[in-house]
From TrEMBL:
GO terms for molecular function: FMN binding; oxidoreductase activity. Pfam families: FMN_red (PF03358). This is FMN reductase. Transmembrane segments: none annotated. Belongs to the azoreductase type 2 family. It comes from Paenibacillus albilobatus.
Length: 186
C-alpha cells in the first residue's frame, strides 16, 4: 500500500515529522510511506488552480498516485496549521485528487491533549463535501507529552504508545483492504 504523509510542521526538529518518520520506518512491511515536502507549496490561488506552480502539480500527482493519506498534524491555536489547510485547499480543487482518498490522522504535542482540538477540525474538513476523504473509523492517535515519549532520534520510548500505534496501523491496513475489496465488487 502506497501512503503519502502530509505533515503540518515544516520546522527541522518537528515532533510531528519525527512521528511520520517513525511510522514510515517501523511499518515498512505493511506500507510504503512517502513524506511529502510541503515547504514550497505556495498559497492557494483560484486564478491558477488549473495550471498551478510545479510544487502543487507534484503534490497533486503524488496524492493521486497514493492509495491513502496519513495526516500528521501539530495543533496551532486550537486548530490545524495553515500549511495543512493550504494543502487541503489545493487538493480539493482542479482534478480533486483528495476526493474519496482514504485518510488517517495522527498528531503530537507537548501538552496533555496531544492535538485533540486540531484533529477535530481536521476531521470536519476532511468530511466536508468538497474534500470527501473517508477516515479510518474508531481510532484516534493523540500523542501528548511527546517530548517525554520520544528520544532525540525520533524513537518512541513509551511502550504504551508503541503498542497502541501497532494496533492502529493494523486496523488501518485492515480497513483499507476492506474498502478496496468493496470498491472492486462494485
Ligand atoms: C503552538 N502550540 C500549541 N500546542 C497546543 O497543544 N495547542 C495549541 O493550540 C498550540 N498553539 C500553537 C500555536 C503556534 C503558532 C505554535 C508555533 C505552537 C505548541 C505546539 O504544539 C508545539 O510547538 C509543537 O511542538 C509543534 O509541533 P512540531 O513542530 O514539533 O511538529
Amino acid at each position: 500500500m502506497k501512503v503519502v504523509a502530509l505533515v503540518g510542521s515544516i520546522r527541522k526538529d518537528s515532533y510531528n515529522r519525527k512521528l511520520a518518520e517513525y511510522v514510515k520506518n517501523k511499518y515498512k512491511e505493511q506500507m510504503d510511506v512517502e513524506i511529502l515536502n510541503l515547504r514550497d507549496v505556495p498559497f492557494y490561488d483560484q486564478d491558477i488552480e488549473n495550471d498551478p506552480p510545479a510544487p502543487v502539480k507534484e503534490l497533486r500527482q503524488k496524492v493521486a498516485a497514493a492509495d491513502a493519506v496519513l495526516w500528521v498534524t501539530p495543533e496551532y491555536n486550537y486548530s490545524i496549521p495553515g500549511v495543512l489547510k493550504n494543502v487541503i485547499d489545493w487538493l480539493s480543487r482542479g482534478d480533486r485528487v483528495i476526493n474519496g482518498k482514504p485518510s488517517f490522522i495522527m498528531g503530537a504535542s507537548m501538552g496533555l491533549l496531544g492535538t485533540v482540538r486540531a484533529q477535530q477540525h481536521l476531521r470536519d474538513i476532511l468530511f466536508s463535501p468538497g474534500v470527501n476523504s473517508p477516515l479510518l473509523p474508531g481510532n484516534e492517535v493523540y500523542v501528548g507529552v511527546v517530548h517525554e515519549k520520544m528520544d532525540e532520534n525520533g524513537n518512541i520510548k513509551d511502550e504504551a504508545t508503541v503498542i497502541f500505534l501497532e494496533s492502529v496501523i493494523a486496523n488501518f491496513v485492515k480497513w483499507f483492504n476492506q474498502q478496496a475489496a468493496a470498491m472492486a465488487v462494485k
